[in-house]
Amino acid sequence: MKVQLVEREVLDPVGVVQADKLKVNPLPEDFEKVSIINNTKPGAEIILDILRKSMGNRELIKVKKPAGAPATQKQIDKASSGELAILALGDCGSCTSWVILDAIRLEKMGIPTISICSTHFAPFAHELAKSHGMNELRILEIEHPIAGLSKEEVEEKTRKLIPSFLYLLQIP
After folding, report:
1. Which of these, 33, 120, 150, 153, has the minimum number of CB atoms within 10 Å of its CB?
2. How many Cβ atoms are within 10 Å of 154's Cβ, its own excluded?
3. Which residues form the UGSC-like domain (predicted)?
Protein backbone atom coordinates (compact mmCIF):
# COMPACT_ATOMS: atom_id res chain seq x y z
CA MET A 1 0.00 0.00 0.00
CA LYS A 2 1.34 3.40 -0.95
CA VAL A 3 0.54 6.52 1.00
CA GLN A 4 1.06 9.90 -0.55
CA LEU A 5 1.95 12.63 1.90
CA VAL A 6 0.78 16.07 0.98
CA GLU A 7 2.15 19.09 2.72
CA ARG A 8 -0.45 21.75 3.40
CA GLU A 9 -0.09 25.27 4.63
CA VAL A 10 -2.21 25.92 7.69
CA LEU A 11 -3.34 29.44 8.39
CA ASP A 12 -2.97 30.88 11.85
CA PRO A 13 -6.46 32.09 12.85
CA VAL A 14 -4.91 35.04 14.65
CA GLY A 15 -2.81 36.09 11.69
CA VAL A 16 -0.63 39.15 11.56
CA VAL A 17 -2.61 42.34 11.89
CA GLN A 18 -1.09 45.79 11.86
CA ALA A 19 -3.68 47.23 14.23
CA ASP A 20 -3.26 50.43 16.16
CA LYS A 21 -3.05 49.91 19.90
CA LEU A 22 -6.46 50.57 21.37
CA LYS A 23 -7.22 51.35 25.00
CA VAL A 24 -9.94 49.45 26.77
CA ASN A 25 -12.62 51.57 28.34
CA PRO A 26 -12.33 52.06 32.09
CA LEU A 27 -14.81 50.15 34.18
CA PRO A 28 -17.40 52.46 35.72
CA GLU A 29 -16.92 53.31 39.39
CA ASP A 30 -20.59 52.74 39.93
CA PHE A 31 -23.08 51.31 37.48
CA GLU A 32 -26.75 50.39 37.33
CA LYS A 33 -27.17 48.74 33.91
CA VAL A 34 -25.22 45.62 32.93
CA SER A 35 -25.43 43.81 29.60
CA ILE A 36 -25.15 40.04 29.90
CA ILE A 37 -24.21 38.44 26.57
CA ASN A 38 -24.88 34.71 26.54
CA ASN A 39 -23.55 32.82 23.53
CA THR A 40 -25.67 29.79 24.51
CA LYS A 41 -22.70 27.48 25.09
CA PRO A 42 -23.36 24.78 27.69
CA GLY A 43 -22.70 26.36 31.09
CA ALA A 44 -22.72 29.98 29.87
CA GLU A 45 -26.10 30.78 31.41
CA ILE A 46 -25.08 29.25 34.75
CA ILE A 47 -21.82 31.25 34.80
CA LEU A 48 -23.51 34.52 33.87
CA ASP A 49 -26.28 34.00 36.42
CA ILE A 50 -23.83 33.45 39.28
CA LEU A 51 -21.72 36.46 38.26
CA ARG A 52 -24.87 38.59 37.93
CA LYS A 53 -25.97 37.67 41.44
CA SER A 54 -22.52 38.53 42.82
CA MET A 55 -22.91 42.13 41.56
CA GLY A 56 -25.96 42.82 43.67
CA ASN A 57 -29.06 44.58 42.43
CA ARG A 58 -28.42 45.88 38.89
CA GLU A 59 -30.65 46.39 35.89
CA LEU A 60 -29.93 43.64 33.37
CA ILE A 61 -29.92 43.79 29.62
CA LYS A 62 -29.95 40.19 28.41
CA VAL A 63 -28.63 39.33 24.97
CA LYS A 64 -28.59 35.77 23.62
CA LYS A 65 -26.66 34.89 20.51
CA PRO A 66 -25.57 31.65 18.87
CA ALA A 67 -22.17 30.23 19.80
CA GLY A 68 -19.56 30.26 17.07
CA ALA A 69 -21.06 33.26 15.31
CA PRO A 70 -20.85 37.03 15.66
CA ALA A 71 -23.53 38.99 17.44
CA THR A 72 -25.80 40.79 15.01
CA GLN A 73 -25.63 44.56 14.88
CA LYS A 74 -29.02 44.65 16.60
CA GLN A 75 -27.64 42.49 19.46
CA ILE A 76 -24.53 44.68 19.76
CA ASP A 77 -26.70 47.82 19.80
CA LYS A 78 -28.87 46.31 22.56
CA ALA A 79 -25.77 45.33 24.58
CA SER A 80 -24.31 48.81 24.14
CA SER A 81 -27.18 50.31 26.14
CA GLY A 82 -25.53 48.97 29.31
CA GLU A 83 -22.73 50.68 31.21
CA LEU A 84 -20.76 47.43 31.21
CA ALA A 85 -20.98 44.18 29.21
CA ILE A 86 -20.12 40.68 30.40
CA LEU A 87 -19.68 38.07 27.67
CA ALA A 88 -19.57 34.27 28.03
CA LEU A 89 -18.42 31.70 27.08
CA GLY A 90 -15.18 31.11 25.20
CA ASP A 91 -14.40 27.42 25.59
CA CYS A 92 -13.72 26.34 22.01
CA GLY A 93 -12.01 27.97 19.04
CA SER A 94 -14.91 29.60 17.21
CA CYS A 95 -16.88 30.64 20.29
CA THR A 96 -13.74 32.14 21.86
CA SER A 97 -13.10 34.08 18.65
CA TRP A 98 -16.58 35.57 18.63
CA VAL A 99 -16.67 36.35 22.36
CA ILE A 100 -13.46 38.35 21.92
CA LEU A 101 -14.43 39.98 18.63
CA ASP A 102 -17.84 40.97 20.02
CA ALA A 103 -16.11 42.40 23.12
CA ILE A 104 -13.82 44.44 20.86
CA ARG A 105 -16.83 45.77 18.93
CA LEU A 106 -18.41 46.90 22.21
CA GLU A 107 -15.15 48.43 23.47
CA LYS A 108 -14.92 50.44 20.24
CA MET A 109 -18.42 51.75 21.02
CA GLY A 110 -17.25 52.93 24.44
CA ILE A 111 -18.65 50.02 26.48
CA PRO A 112 -16.23 48.37 28.92
CA THR A 113 -16.30 44.57 28.77
CA ILE A 114 -15.32 41.49 30.72
CA SER A 115 -15.09 38.26 28.71
CA ILE A 116 -15.18 34.81 30.28
CA CYS A 117 -13.00 32.17 28.61
CA SER A 118 -11.82 28.75 29.75
CA THR A 119 -8.21 28.30 30.81
CA HIS A 120 -7.53 26.19 27.73
CA PHE A 121 -8.67 28.91 25.30
CA ALA A 122 -7.65 32.05 27.22
CA PRO A 123 -4.15 32.19 25.65
CA PHE A 124 -5.77 32.21 22.20
CA ALA A 125 -8.25 34.86 23.41
CA HIS A 126 -5.39 37.11 24.57
CA GLU A 127 -3.52 36.65 21.27
CA LEU A 128 -6.63 37.44 19.26
CA ALA A 129 -7.30 40.59 21.29
CA LYS A 130 -3.66 41.62 20.93
CA SER A 131 -3.78 41.12 17.15
CA HIS A 132 -6.69 43.59 17.07
CA GLY A 133 -4.82 46.16 19.14
CA MET A 134 -6.62 45.38 22.42
CA ASN A 135 -3.72 44.06 24.51
CA GLU A 136 -5.50 44.94 27.76
CA LEU A 137 -8.91 43.43 26.96
CA ARG A 138 -10.30 42.04 30.23
CA ILE A 139 -10.51 38.24 30.03
CA LEU A 140 -11.38 36.22 33.11
CA GLU A 141 -10.39 32.57 33.01
CA ILE A 142 -12.61 29.76 34.20
CA GLU A 143 -11.19 26.28 34.65
CA HIS A 144 -11.52 24.12 31.51
CA PRO A 145 -13.63 22.15 30.62
CA ILE A 146 -17.14 23.47 31.05
CA ALA A 147 -19.05 21.49 28.42
CA GLY A 148 -20.25 18.13 29.67
CA LEU A 149 -20.24 19.14 33.33
CA SER A 150 -23.20 19.05 35.69
CA LYS A 151 -24.81 22.29 36.83
CA GLU A 152 -23.19 21.83 40.24
CA GLU A 153 -19.70 21.41 38.72
CA VAL A 154 -20.09 24.57 36.61
CA GLU A 155 -21.36 26.45 39.67
CA GLU A 156 -18.31 25.31 41.68
CA LYS A 157 -15.89 26.48 38.98
CA THR A 158 -17.74 29.80 38.68
CA ARG A 159 -17.63 30.48 42.42
CA LYS A 160 -13.81 30.42 42.13
CA LEU A 161 -14.08 33.35 39.66
CA ILE A 162 -16.12 35.62 41.91
CA PRO A 163 -13.23 37.20 43.91
CA SER A 164 -11.37 38.19 40.70
CA PHE A 165 -14.60 39.36 39.10
CA LEU A 166 -15.57 41.56 42.05
CA TYR A 167 -11.99 42.87 42.32
CA LEU A 168 -12.13 44.03 38.69
CA LEU A 169 -15.42 45.79 39.38
CA GLN A 170 -14.17 47.17 42.73
CA ILE A 171 -17.20 45.71 44.51
CA PRO A 172 -16.40 44.79 48.13
Report:
1. 150
2. 24
3. 9-170
Could you please report the per-residue DSSP string of the chain? Answer: ------------SS----PPP-PPPPPPSS-SEEEEEE---TTHHHHHHHHHHHT-S-EEEEEE--TTSPPPHHHHHHHTTSSEEEEEEE-SHHHHHHHHHHHHHHHHTT--EEEEEETTTHHHHHHHHHHTT-TT--EEEEPSP-TT--HHHHHHHHHTTHHHHHHHHT--
Q: Which fold is adopted by the domain 33-169?
A: Rossmann fold (3.40.50)
Cα 70 to chain centroid, rounded: 12
